[in-house]
Amino acid sequence: MKLRASHLAGAVALAAGLAVAAPALASQNIPWTWNSSDHDAKAEFVASNDTFHAYVYNPTDYVNWSGPGATGRWDLNSGSAEQNLPFNWTKGKVVTLNVCQSKTLWPDDCSGTQSGVS
């Protein structure tokens, strides 16, 4: 059987398309994460509803977050009630958070960056 140039071109295009299309990642929560030293705030990400949750104990606490095509800083209100920041992201995309307390004379007190999947 002879291969024609059109068959070969089609096979190369198919192989290239398969190499580029990566499988979607499975959903993965980010568990409750405290700011580093004094535990004034904590945050989590729940993949099933694409929502960040936070508890805050100091008015200078905030969460740095990122998701598909977006990043931001979520300034938290004081009080220990749970606060929510919902999104509607495409499933299988990486999201991150770190929770911090702003300091005046010192570097901000932050957790390490945690990753999950929407």
What do you see in this structure?
The chain is mainly beta and 118 residues long. It has a single domain (25-117), classed as Immunoglobulin-like (Sandwich). 14% of the residues lie in helices and 41% in strands. It has 1 helix and 9 strands; from the N terminus they run αβββββββββ. It has one helix spanning 5-20, and strands spanning 30-34, 41-46, 51-56, 61-67, 70-75, 83-86, 94-101, 109-110, 114-117. The strands form 2 sheets. Strands 4, 5, 7, 8 and 9 form a 5-stranded antiparallel sheet that branches. The protein starts with a helix and ends with a strand. 25% of the residues are buried. Mean pLDDT is 83; it is low at 6-19.
Listing every helix as H and every strand as E from the N terminus to the C terminus, the arrangement reads: HEEEEEEEEE
Helix content: 10-25%
Number of helices: 1
Average of pLDDT: 83
Instruction: Quote the beta fraction.
Output: 35-45%
Given as residue ranges, the uncertain stretches (5+ residues, pLDDT < 50) are: 6-19
Largest sheet: 5 strands, antiparallel
Count of discrete domains: 1
Radius of gyration, Cα only, in angstroms?
21 Å
